[in-house]
Design a protein that fits this description.
The protein has about 100 residues and is mostly helical. Helices cover about 60% and strands about 0% of the residues. It has 4 helices and no strands. Helix 1 packs across helix 2. It is globular.
């Protein structure tokens, strides 16, 4: 399920339908995971995915959007097995909490 969630995130980013959590997933795939290329199709290249500033994902989101993002992040936390990735998602959740406190 985790692999499918990451693949769906990539597809939404490429299709211009990305949700905030999808941008975080792409960051996690490119910056944290070492075997991210296993999620690419044979016709895709690594450089095709835009990587954004993770903190920028939280900027401009309203309260409801932040709540939705927190639920999405918690879903990744529940499924993640790699320690480095799990740490990334936990830090992302903390960032969300800091943004909602502002």
């Amino acid at each position: 399920m985790l692999r499918q969630a990451k693949r769906r995130a990539i597809l939404r980013v490429r299709g211009g339908r990305a949700r905030p959590v999808d941008w975080l997933a792409v960051v996690a795939l490119r910056a944290v995971e070492r075997d991210a290329d296993v999620l690419l199709d044979e016709n895709e290249e690594d450089g095709e995915l835009e990587v954004v500033d993770p903190e920028g994902v939280f900027e401009g989101l309203g309260r409801r959007e932040l709540e939705d993002l927190a639920a999405d992040i918690e879903s990744y936390i529940a499924r993640e097995t790699a320690a480095a990735n799990l740490e990334f998602w936990k830090v992302s959740l903390l960032s969300k909490l800091c943004c909602s406190a502002c």
